Amino acid sequence: MSVEKNLQHIQEKIIEACKKVNRDPHEIMLIGVTKYTTIEKAEELIQNGVINLGENRDQEFLSKYEVIGNRAEWHFIGTLQSRKVKNIIDKVDYIHSLDRLSLAKEIDKRATKKINCLVQVNVSEEESKHGLKREETIPFIENLAEYQNIRVIGLMTMAPNTDNENILRKVFRDLKKLQEEVQNLGFEHAPCDQLSMGMSNDFEIAIEEGATMIRIGSLLVGEN
Ligand SMILES: *Cc1c(COP(=O)(O)O)cnc(C)c1O
Q1: Atom of ligand 1 at shortest distance to CA of 31?
Q2: Measuring CA to CA, which residue among 178, 181, 110, 204 is closest to residue 148?
Q3: Per-position pLDDT tens, the chain of length 224
Q4: Does the C-beta of 215 come closer than 6 Å to ligand 1?
Q5: Of all protein residues, whose CA lies closest to atom 4 belonging to ligand 1?
Q6: Could you say which of 8, 13, 23, 69 is the most buried, measured as most Cβ atoms within 10 Å of its Cβ?
Q7: Is any atom of ligand 1 closer than 6 Å to the C-beta of 200?
Q8: Is the distance from the beta carbon of residue 31 to the nearest atom of ligand 1 less than 6 Å?
């Protein structure tokens, strides 16, 4: 299937999911995850209006950035090693994987402007996944106040790899609850109005549960 056809299909699903829960589809930012794919496919996404692109490795990101540059808004969605921060920090628009103070410190040190960050939460507490436990998240965000270049715009999670709708829904619901708790604290450095959750196989449920950013790879560009 072409990118255009895939996109059309996804957009229809976004609209349907929004309709179910009375949300405005414009609230949903579609991030095209290009980590599996070529620069050509990424260009095709941009031509079709998907200008938010997600990458999870610094090398892949940099090689695409070299060609595409600021024609896209770049989302870093993968585990980020502190020593890689300096290579990407002036090129990314969002970091979705902030999960430790040492990383925050390095971002703060290397950035020349405020960086939009999302704190990654391991809601399901799977061993294989990165991110903070739920109960660690608020103290962590409190500690970020001292870093001038970090702005916590939201929370991010990856749901378990399952088709069990109840499990998925519970994970998304728990992240939403946590987001509301952060918002209620009214931290100046952490407006936390974004929820980055939902991928190819679960984005409709994520939207029903409040996602504002969905990260879609395989359904959009294939897995080549
Ligand atoms: C790969 C990846 C995605 C996209 O996954 P798909 O299932 O292909 O849509 C989303 N988020 C993160 C963090 C990823 O690493």
Answers
A1: 10
A2: 110
A3: 789 999 999 999 999 999 999 999 999 999 999 998 999 999 999 999 999 999 999 999 999 999 999 999 999 999 999 999 999 999 999 999 999 999 999 999 999 999 999 999 999 988 888 999 999 999 999 999 999 999 999 999 999 999 999 999 999 999 999 999 999 999 999 999 999 999 999 999 999 999 999 999 999 998 65
A4: yes
A5: 217
A6: 23
A7: yes
A8: no
